[in-house]
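Researcher: Let's do a round of design. I'm pasting the structure tokens now; please hold your answer until I've finished.
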């Protein structure tokens, strides 16, 4: 098994270098068995009917990868929480539940984006509950693409302002939430993104592997090759 895990690319029209690095990675590593994307692949996602050139390019790159024989699994993040089954069909991939147990390097492993572990950030958790509700998403999808894009810009601006006024520690995971999630899932290994703090943490119940965010300077991936796992940083540009 040769599998790659990535998260937090935050692709947008403002990050052409990251987009090029991502497509370059897919081409360079191919053929490989499986690609797992743990959320925030996009900086914003306004619905699976998004017809922007960026959305079309990413769909094409992933569809081409799937047609080459690579399995594609993905889950929603806090920025692209509107990703759905149509996108999965478009790319020939599979949309995973927000918490998924997968065999990774011979161990049952809990995969998640990571935002649900940041339980000290009460305001964010309330916002997350709102925007993940079917009623809110249905109301959103009833709007035009231009209206949704404008709302996404407003929400992003509000998020940046809110984050600037929060202590750093409440935007990281709560260790109790990590232990509870692992125990409830019956696992001793977890992989997530979201916090932009890549590392391999030993905790009371096992190992928590955190994927890094992609920037103009560097990208991150977790590589599974048979029973070995390696967290890798690579240069961009």
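Researcher: That's everything. Go ahead.
Model: Designed sequence:
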């Amino acid at each position: 098994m040769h599998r790659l895990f990535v998260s937090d690319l935050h692709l947008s029209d403002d990050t052409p270098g990251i987009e090029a690095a991502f497509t370059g990675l897919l081409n360079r590593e191919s053929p490989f068995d499986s690609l797992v994307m743990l959320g925030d692949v996009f900086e914003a996602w306004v619905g699976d009917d998004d017809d922007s050139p960026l959305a079309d390019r990413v769909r094409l790159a992933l569809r081409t990868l799937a047609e080459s024989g690579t399995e594609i699994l993905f889950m929603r993040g806090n920025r692209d929480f509107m990703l759905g089954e149509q996108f999965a069909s478009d790319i020939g991939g599979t949309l995973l539940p927000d918490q998924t147990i997968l065999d990774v390097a011979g161990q049952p492993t809990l995969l998640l984006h990571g935002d649900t572990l940041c339980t000290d950030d009460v305001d964010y958790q309330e916002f997350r509950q709102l925007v993940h509700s079917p009623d809110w998403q249905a109301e959103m999808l009833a709007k035009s693409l231009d209206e949704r894009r404008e709302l996404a810009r407003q929400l992003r601006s509000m998020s940046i302002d809110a984050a600037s006024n929060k202590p750093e520690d409440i935007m990281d995971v709560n260790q109790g939430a990590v232990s509870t999630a692992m125990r409830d899932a019956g696992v001793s290994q977890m992989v997530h993104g979201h916090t932009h703090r890549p590392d391999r943490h030993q905790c009371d119940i096992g190992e928590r592997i955190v994927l890094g965010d992609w920037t103009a300077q560097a990208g991150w991936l977790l590589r599974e090759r048979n029973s070995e796992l390696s967290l890798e940083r690579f240069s961009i540009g």
